[in-house]
Design a protein that fits this description.
Oligomer: single chain
Largest sheet: 5 strands, mixed
Radius of gyration: 23 Å
Shape: globular
Distance between the termini: 45 Å
Strand content: 15-25%
């Protein structure tokens, strides 16, 4: 048994049993991947994958039982390397943060700036994507930290911790009729106008949908986007009323718009930080987490990593 065999099994599942794609991911040939899998199956004495001819179609029952063990072995091998690097050089290395557009644009800049001041020798990579993509980058080991509002807590392979709470705001052009209602604006009043807001699965969109559904109102959503700046641009063009995260508002940059607090209309949102369960976190990763969310000390993060349950702290 060797790590190449284990990687072949893991990547086969991740690539949807497409061995051509697996070979590309592992920088080898398709026959090489097939041989690695076959040799491991022979050594274990059980078939890991179901087959239709030469094509792999899924995991067998033994394969489904063995896969988590394969994942753990590969994770621990990666942890061993990271632990060694931590002892050799605690202030140098690479850290990758995966975040949604809103988090990367509005929530992270100050934390990144402060962290860079503390660890100038750490190369920081910031990847943006949907909440699902953020989770997948964590699961594949491509990111050390993931930050998003939606979806992360639905993955049992991830440890998630709350960072901060925020509400939505309504943005409109100057002199818009909704300004007369102010913070007493209702969902029914809002539904009279075309609405521009986030894509499904982004930045608390589920809470917006839930509020209208519970009120029995169908909103006229005419345009969706991943980024608040895009939403505000189309509001400025007079295409509709925007619903954005309050953290995405800037008095100077948004001087051509007016805002109405909508915390009374939509449920409060919680931005969460996630790490892969079982992953080794280098010392500077803990420091970045605490820089971003001061309540998430190393002790709190370690407690969450050691527990099978979600740890809730004040956000």
């Amino acid at each position: 048994m060797n790590f190449q065999q284990l990687r072949s099994v893991r990547e086969t599942v991740r690539c949807g049993f497409n061995l051509t794609e697996v070979a590309s991911m592992l920088y080898t040939s398709q026959p090489g991947v097939s041989r690695q899998i076959r040799e491991l199956e022979e050594e274990l004495g059980v078939p890991i994958f179901a087959r239709a001819g030469k094509r792999l179609t899924g995991l067998t029952d033994p394969g489904a039982t063995l896969l988590p063990i394969v994942e753990r072995l590969l994770t621990e091998a990666e942890n061993l390397k990271l632990a060694g690097r931590d002892f050799v050089s605690q202030a140098e290395g690479v850290m990758t943060v995966a975040a949604t557009h809103s988090q990367a644009r509005y929530a992270l800049p100050h934390a990144v700036r402060d962290f860079r001041g503390l660890y100038p020798q750490v190369v920081l990579h910031l990847h943006q994507g949907s909440p699902r993509q953020v989770a997948e980058m964590l699961l594949r080991g491509e990111a050390d930290i993931g930050i998003a509002t939606e979806a992360l807590s639905t993955y049992p392979q991830l440890v998630t911790l709350p960072c901060y709470r925020w509400t939505h705001s309504i943005v409109v052009p100057p002199h818009h009729p909704l300004l007369a209602a102010g913070e007493a604006v209702t969902l029914a009043q809002l539904a009279h106008y075309p609405i521009i807001t986030y894509d499904q699965g982004y930045t608390g969109r589920s809470h917006i949908d839930d509020a209208f559904t519970q009120a029995g109102i169908t909103p006229n959503v005419v345009l969706t986007a991943m980024d608040a700046d895009v939403i505000k641009t189309y509001v400025e063009l007079g295409m509709g009323v925007g619903i954005v995260a309050s953290i995405a508002l800037d008095e100077v940059r948004d001087r051509h718009l007016r805002t109405i607090e909508a915390g009374h209309l939509f449920e409060i949102n919680v931005t969460r930080l996630a790490v892969r369960r079982g992953a080794w976190l280098r010392g500077y990763v803990y420091k970045f987490i605490e820089t971003f969310a001061p309540t998430l000390t190393r002790e709190v993060v370690d407690q969450a990593l050691a527990s099978d349950e979600t740890i809730e702290v004040s956000a």
